[in-house]
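Reader question, answered in our methods column.
A reader sent in the components of a multi-part assembly and asked whether the whole thing could be modeled at once rather than chain by chain. We filled in our standard form and ran it. Here is what they sent:
COMPLEX SIZE: four components
ENTRIES:
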Amino acid sequence: MAGSQPVRIGIVGATSYTAREAFRLLLNHPQAQVVAACSRRDPQPRVDEVFPEFTGRVNLQCEPIDADALRGRIDVAFLCLPNGLAMTLAPRLLELGIRVIDFSADYRLKEPADYAAWYDKTHTDLDNLAQAVYGLPEFYRERIRTARLIANPGCYPTSAALAILPFLKAGLIEPTDIIVDSASGISGAGAEPRPEHHFPERHETFEAYNVGKHRHMVEIERTLDPYVRGSKTSVIFTPHLVPMERGILSTVYLKPTQPISVEHAMQVLLETYENEPFVRVRERLPRTSEVARTNCCDLAVRVVKSRIVVLSAIDNMVKGASGQAIQNMNVMFGIDEKAGLR
Amino acid sequence: MAGSQPVRIGIVGATSYTAREAFRLLLNHPQAQVVAACSRRDPQPRVDEVFPEFTGRVNLQCEPIDADALRGRIDVAFLCLPNGLAMTLAPRLLELGIRVIDFSADYRLKEPADYAAWYDKTHTDLDNLAQAVYGLPEFYRERIRTARLIANPGCYPTSAALAILPFLKAGLIEPTDIIVDSASGISGAGAEPRPEHHFPERHETFEAYNVGKHRHMVEIERTLDPYVRGSKTSVIFTPHLVPMERGILSTVYLKPTQPISVEHAMQVLLETYENEPFVRVRERLPRTSEVARTNCCDLAVRVVKSRIVVLSAIDNMVKGASGQAIQNMNVMFGIDEKAGLR
Amino acid sequence: MAGSQPVRIGIVGATSYTAREAFRLLLNHPQAQVVAACSRRDPQPRVDEVFPEFTGRVNLQCEPIDADALRGRIDVAFLCLPNGLAMTLAPRLLELGIRVIDFSADYRLKEPADYAAWYDKTHTDLDNLAQAVYGLPEFYRERIRTARLIANPGCYPTSAALAILPFLKAGLIEPTDIIVDSASGISGAGAEPRPEHHFPERHETFEAYNVGKHRHMVEIERTLDPYVRGSKTSVIFTPHLVPMERGILSTVYLKPTQPISVEHAMQVLLETYENEPFVRVRERLPRTSEVARTNCCDLAVRVVKSRIVVLSAIDNMVKGASGQAIQNMNVMFGIDEKAGLR
Amino acid sequence: MAGSQPVRIGIVGATSYTAREAFRLLLNHPQAQVVAACSRRDPQPRVDEVFPEFTGRVNLQCEPIDADALRGRIDVAFLCLPNGLAMTLAPRLLELGIRVIDFSADYRLKEPADYAAWYDKTHTDLDNLAQAVYGLPEFYRERIRTARLIANPGCYPTSAALAILPFLKAGLIEPTDIIVDSASGISGAGAEPRPEHHFPERHETFEAYNVGKHRHMVEIERTLDPYVRGSKTSVIFTPHLVPMERGILSTVYLKPTQPISVEHAMQVLLETYENEPFVRVRERLPRTSEVARTNCCDLAVRVVKSRIVVLSAIDNMVKGASGQAIQNMNVMFGIDEKAGLR
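And here is the structure of the entire assembly that came back:
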């Protein structure tokens, strides 16, 4: 892209936390620029009214969500919308030649039946669903390069998949005996105030939620499935809430098909991620603060009795959302993959 | 009260944070018992549905707010209601012979004009307003003993008045050059979720609010006024929000009428509170955590250049609300003043 | 104990967090009183110098740790000492007729070889080790009644054992496929400042630690073992650190020996704890804030695919330490088991 | 600097929090690069061992602090050292032609007597002290351009001076009746663990400290003094500690020499900072989270009774330390002042 124009980005759903994080990260992107912000609010606010930290730094007035109004003005749309809305907007954007990175779950599950079962909606854009690429660059980089529609992965699935796939691909673990025990900061719940996230309720407490029922459980399985021959994976997923703003740590319990040493397990991770710019395999156990505001995923592994235990830390708002979207955009537009994400 | 029946309490507005704190404190009160809980919800919840920590510990079904339905069942009502509602309920309760401790501001300001100006409402119960006693036992204990209606003080005014009154009473400070700079935990904002108290917004931030406009500014002044001859006090009050659940620290700047030593200032505090069970005058600077979940007010004093600086810490939910209400109740009913508050 | 003298308690290791919590809880105990506080500090502080919140509430000067100096003055000693020290002190206290509740791990593992392997010390008091009773009243109440030496359980093992034992006793789960994934507030690390618990490092982060190496892993197994015929249990235990002061949530994954419904699983818990004053079995998922500062253990259960998932919440400082010690004391001295713990 | 080599920076005292923040900010600086890191540790660590978040991002091995070893390798040294050490190192660095930005207090107070009185040390580098420029670009930009030695301002003084100087310069306020009431996040206390900053002690508490004795009180006065004719200023300064990582909010009480409207006060701020890239004057009250990780200072003003109340928020680690250092460096080296600080 040397010498070329910067990529022009439209952020749709500009008042969400993932939009906020995208604005923040893109302030430092040398080859991309947010040129449009769309929201469902009426009246439309300025971005720095919604997020006052951007006063004097982001100079954008929100506009209504209207694909045609974006024609010719943007190269790529970041869809930061609730599940179910993206699939009503993406088709027209794609027709207009605008590439789409969708932050919702709409294009993540290839089987419409899964979507219907877990999201309680009928999928209405099957054509694009078939074409969408799951935006996990560590495993789908080549397909991302030419993709026009990216299903940006969920936060928990990103942390889980990066921990599990190396072992699953290598055939070292039982695909149906996987436990993912995760904990997330509260930004993952979004910008909408809710009684259970009122500060005095959320501060100084820890809890599990949606045990066995979280939608990311099926997303993790479907992300793993292609790497198992002749069968499906089975994952037990338990998310927890940590009284902090951001970060996810997943503690993943895997059953090796035969005894494995911790050195071997470490080697599997090191080899898988040898050339990856954002995955750091380390001896030291990860902490979410060490990946906060970065696009890094930190991994460590232990063998405890009959299990491989993989620890995986990301920032749910960066590698788990907006950072990964930018990474995907960089790959799609042939920009240095680390641009804006150093 | 030896040998007598426990005081029967009705908590009206049972789903508020101050109600919750009263339920918690009264679990340990040897001579009082909550026997009724009233709320405006429909359908009426059990107390342990609203506050699940009370499961198996508080066995009460909420009932509608109806003074007559409480006749003969309770000795005292704790009114944990929004400003403006208490004055519609208290008159009938008093008629029924039920004593009232009002947590709202309805009976705190003796001048109806003040109430109208600051609370934007016309006071509708002037008779009882005239009889109400401001429930600051350290200064009004004798009147509280025989009171039938207590205006339980505001949280900030409690912390400020206990810091200022000793010096004002002694004529040692300028009454019109008082600055109260306070900081409070978020429980002070109540149980209702608000965007600015959504955990990711409130965590890791500090700010002032309602600068020069907070209603407690006038309450502080009116609490001080009776101790100045021939004039009114003037207080500048700035509240701040601390990302913690509970606690208030007030840093109070007083202008001595003539130079004063720190030893003298300390002596004034020590003498004022010599026999007070809940005010601790100490050399050491106070911290809100040292008064958390207690009815204590910790005070320290310094002299800095031309000012006396008094530091005053309370738990806003205890000495600043429900604990002080219980203290008032103990005084009213001739119980050991520390009962339930050890 | 009606009409009798209060139980006289000596707290040894009076500057620890568990001592602090015992002092706090015992302020409200109607039939017990702390009459001695012993520490290793020189010079010896007052308790309220170390913990200023007790100013005016706990009036005790610390004294050196000397069993003979306590003769005749106390009925029971709470040993809040590091591992390895309790076993040097308990023998003499017991000889003097003082009952002992030991907060350390010294008397928890019946096999000296386990102690040597996990605590890197040779056990020096095998006689009393053989007599010590593991202080989990829900399972050992009868033995506690007559015990002279209580091994007060570890915090994580308490939360885990209460979740697992009902199913293990009933023969419903595989004893060698148990995963305990726990998260604790930072008070569990004790009062000694450490770089990793410096506020700016600990705030806003989440991490696992001692994966597969935490000493509570063997304590959990040894607590479960007696309930399995002919074999030993095998537990994988992963502790995590939550940026909060107190609380433990354990998420426990159990493998049923045959398919089980969630209703059946729930029934097992309900029946086991039907008459227990401090275990609350609920449909609702537990949160640590709902047990904070109480001696309660909140349990919920789900069945997810091939596993029973039990959620177990306690306050690590109360049911996980000082509250359980008081519960044990109450049982030992024939006091109402809930005294001081309401 | 177009086309020229990047500025080469040496960070001395590389294991401090201000060093950490400088490393973080400089990752994104397009025209400057950290090429040396010096520490007093033995053995010398890698930067990413001390701060693991920099794994794969900062590739530097620490080296001993030795001015001569830096000759020719760096253009500017950031001295992130305790007070008293900088003045032993700066002279040689300056002799070697290395410019110096000192984060300590060593070159902030022009009067050696002030330094002796407040820092309890005799100043040993009076020549350079006389030449040093106080690095507050909003007021000393021209002198910074040609400075060889910058005294980087303290965090509290930065927040206070930016709030007060506009009014003082305009002669609108009494110079001897100024109250600065500030609150800071805990990173301001540095990286060294201390008992009072142990997580369980610091979480959920608020307190004042060093009331009337903090060294920044004199720094604020000396920063204001040059703007008053014929007299000195007198400031009462009270710092507080907020349970958050970063951020300072100062609430400043100024006495107008004659009545002033809030519109006039606002106008004074707006005009002063009209062209400043990092000072944002707003109607809305500032919050520390809105300046977190930015070099911005947010200001708002109110008039309350007889006082002007100015609210001033900065990130203590950025505008209050490392960001301001980079801003100073940018000015000194003729780089875009916002480089690395967007």
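What stands out: The first helix of chain B runs from residue 17 to 26. The mean pLDDT of chain B is 97.
Send us your own complexes using the same form.
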